[in-house]
Every structure is written in structure tokens, then in C-alpha cells.
Design goal:
By secondary structure, this protein is of the alpha+beta class. Helices cover 24% and strands 29% of the residues.
């Protein structure tokens, strides 16, 4: 672990912060917002959304390590992000962040990506999450939206298979029988953009400075991609949690996420989520559980993909062993 002096962006998780994140993203999962329910969990307390930690991590790095992220560079933007959760963040925990650059040391080459690795630790020194983010620079001579000629193809619309019975659906059945399809998210407003930036502590001028943004890579202020992903994750999780699943609910968990920016999201854009299960892998230490990966793709009202990502969940299996599955 880095020396304590190198940690920055200290913030304490409170019930109020968790409730605010829920209202900003729509993720009102009971384990986060119902303190009495949280107190009855094996942890004996409620804990924060994983994406709350991720949002604070990105905000703190932009605020405290802006030179590495290229905060003042109108031609640079956060292009991808990944995080792996190691332990729950409980109410009362104070998170601190550390990051370091890997790979290229500058962004002088057209389109070159800078990568940062980061860690989150609590007041006891225990690392709660680790991840990475990439910074991309606009190639010289391109328009403010250089993706128009090379948009990621949207997934075809799929319908979830009809349930064969009311029995629980095991993790090993998700690839074949799990939910998939399209879900509405909502329209994005300037208020959404500013409120999320204030909550996450992310002072990125691409979201907050209209004059800076006019001359920057997107030509106008844009929503943080973390906001777009969090909104998409929220509507998808609500759909997943409707399913009857085996095992003890407290054993299920959010393990981590990955997303990549495809195009900017502006105020006034209306977002839609396309989702599908990708694979399931039984864990060695607890073979009755499986790491189950779901694909999430966010589109705007023109059916252009703006963000593409994956979410890893720990879900219970049925008694039979999992066969090798892939997308």
C-alpha cells in the first residue's frame, strides 16, 4: 500500500450520502437505503453502493490529480474506467484514494491513451476497491465529435425468455434464460449533470464550464460517463432483482464494473439501456456461487451507442455444476 501521505480526497460515507446517491441514480436497493435491513445483514450494518465509491474515486482523482487526468486540456477526456470491489464500504467509513500513472508519460501522440491505476482504502487501512481509468486525447484535425464515422454497433433487440416456472433461476442458467432486452433510462438535464458533479466532487470543466466546453472536444457541456453508467446500472439491477433466485440474498453481491465511452451525452439526450447476460463462472472457494457477467449498452434517442460496459455480480447457483459458458 502507498504511504499514507500519498492518499487524498478523504470523504466519510454517511446514510445521507447513500440516500443522495440513490436519488441521483435511482438505485434504491434495500441493503443500501434501509438501515434496519442492513443491521440484520451478516455485516451488522448498512453499506454504500459500489458505484458511490466509484463516483467518489473518479471525482477525487479529477479534483486532486487533475494534471494526470488532463483536466485543463480541452482535447482530453476519460475514455474508460474499471473497478473491482474487495470489501463493502460501511456507513461511517472514511475513504481515501491513491493513484499512479502507468504506460505512456504524456499525451502528445494523437489518440494516445494514458492509464491510471487507483486504490480506495478506509480509515483502518483496508483496501476496499482497486481499478483503472484511461484518458484519451482527440486526434489533431478531428471535429468535436470524432466518433461519428465509427460508432459502436448497437446490440439487436432481444426479448427475455419466458419463465418456464416460478422456480428460482440459478447463475448457471443466466446466459440462456436470464433477462435481456431494452429498458428506458430517462432524459438527462443540466440539473442532473451539475448535481452529480457536485455530489461526486468532480470539477471536470467538460461538465461544468460552458465556455471551456464550447472550444473543447465535445463542443458543449456533457454528462459524466459515470452518471450515465450509474443510471443504466440502476434500471438493469431493478430488472435483475425481480427474478426469483436461489441462495441467501445477502450472499449475492456487486463485484465490479467496466465501461468505455463511445460518444458524449448532452443535456436533453434521452437514454435507453440494452442488456444481456454474458457468462457465469463458479468460484473455487464457494462453489455454490458464481461470478456472473452482464453486458450493458447505453444508447441515446438516435439509437447511437454512447457507453458500453459490463457488470460482475456474485449469484447463487443450483445444485448441478456449471458447464463452461461464454457469450
Amino acid at each position: 500500500m502507498k504511504d499514507q501521505a500519498e492518499w487524498f480526497g478523504h470523504r466519510t460515507v454517511t446514510a445521507e450520502a447513500v440516500a443522495t446517491f440513490a436519488s441521483l441514480t435511482g438505485d434504491f436497493s434495500r441493503i443500501h437505503v434501509d438501515q434496519h435491513f442492513g443491521a440484520s445483514s451478516p455485516l451488522g450494518t448498512g453499506f454504500a453502493h459500489g458505484l458511490l465509491s466509484a463516483s467518489w474515486a473518479l471525482g477525487s482523482m479529477t479534483r486532486c490529480a487533475g494534471d494526470l487526468i488532463g483536466r485543463a486540456d480541452p482535447d482530453s477526456y476519460v475514455s474508460n474506467f474499471s473497478i473491482r470491489f474487495h470489501s463493502p464500504v460501511r456507513f461511517g467509513d472514511t475513504l481515501a484514494f491513491a493513484c499512479q500513472e502507468v504506460g505512456p508519460s504524456d499525451l502528445q501522440k494523437d489518440g494516445e491513451t494514458r492509464q491510471l491505476n487507483f486504490s480506495l482504502a478506509n480509515q483502518r487501512g483496508a483496501v476496499s476497491a482497486m481499478g483503472s481509468l484511461g484518458i484519451r486525447k482527440r486526434p489533431v484535425g478531428t471535429s468535436p465529435s470524432p466518433w461519428k464515422a465509427d460508432l459502436t454497433q448497437s446490440w439487436p433487440l432481444e426479448k427475455s425468455p419466458p419463465p418456464s416456472s416460478s422456480r428460482a433461476l440459478g447463475a448457471e442458467e443466466m446466459v440462456e434464460l436470464g433477462p435481456r432486452g431494452s429498458l428506458p433510462i430517462r432524459s438527462i438535464t443540466e440539473t442532473d449533470i451539475v448535481n452529480f458533479a457536485n455530489f461526486s466532487g468532480d470539477p471536470n470543466p467538460l461538465s461544468l464550464d460552458a465556455e471551456f466546453s464550447k472550444k473543447a472536444i465535445f463542443g458543449s457541456t456533457t454528462a459524466s460517463p459515470m452518471l450515465s453508467f450509474s443510471l443504466g446500472f440502476s434500471v438493469w439491477l431493478s430488472e435483475l432483482m425481480k427474478l426469483p433466485m436461489p441462495g441467501i440474498p445477502s450472499e449475492a453481491g456487486h463485484l465490479g464494473d467496466r465501461w468505455q465511452v463511445v460518444a458524449p451525452v448532452f443535456a436533453g439526450d434521452t437514454l435507453e439501456l440494452r442488456h444481456r447476460p454474458l457468462n457465469a463462472r463458479r468460484t473455487r472457494s464457494r462453489p455454490h456461487l458464481a461470478v456472473t457477467t452482464f453486458g450493458l449498452q447505453i444508447l441515446n434517442q438516435r439509437e447511437e451507442v454512447v457507453l458500453q460496459g459490463e457488470a460482475d455480480m456474485m449469484l447463487a447457483t443450483l445444485d448441478e455444476p456449471i458447464e463452461s459458458q461464454s457469450r
